[in-house]
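This part of the workshop introduces the protein records we will be handling. An example says more than a description, so a record of this kind follows:
>
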Amino acid sequence: MIQVKNIHKFYGKGESRSEILKGLSFQVEDGDFLVILGASGSGKSTLLNIMSGLERPDEGEINYGRTELAHLTDKELTEFRKKNIGFIFQQYYLLPNLNVDKNVKMGADLAGNKDYRETIAAVGLDKKLQKYPHELSGGEQQRVSVARALAKKPSVLYLDEPTGALDEETGRLVLDYISKLREESGFTVIMVTHNQNIAEMANTVIRMNSGRIVETLHNVKPKTAYEIAY
């Protein structure tokens, strides 16, 4: 279980100092599929970064079971993320000097996963193993980043607008694969998106506005990637 307790985050100093997150509290059950919705500037990406340990809150706690992230040193936090967290960013962050196979293998090696090429095939890139990032389209690069994160076999997978660069067919394929793999493996999915239709796939939906949670919903019967409008 992930517990978010009274999280505050500020940016800037003096008169330009602004509060981005304003006392957020909620919890995420193990194996949940949580979607966080909100307009640009609502604080949802900042929340994702703090929950995943990429940023530290100015106030409040993030607890993974008995592990409180604020109590970890930078080195310990890096090790925690390495072992437990997968992240699919809006930007792809692929290593330009590594081909598709080696970019994904880099994530797989963290989990000792020797079957990572099955993940590459599942996102439709098995014929492009030797291609380098500059030889791929934006959508293909995003699929490499998806495969790399999943090959790591994380306990919690964070996604920041994962389908933004994908066409509808590929977006559905990727979402379907992530959803099915979550059901099989039991990892937790936490996704930020502008696409309200994707929220219909989630067990839990949080809506944010101006750094606050304004609504929490639970889907009794989540839809599949091929049942939602796109």
About this structure: DSSP finds six helices and ten strands in the chain. Residues 168-185 form the longest helix (18 residues).
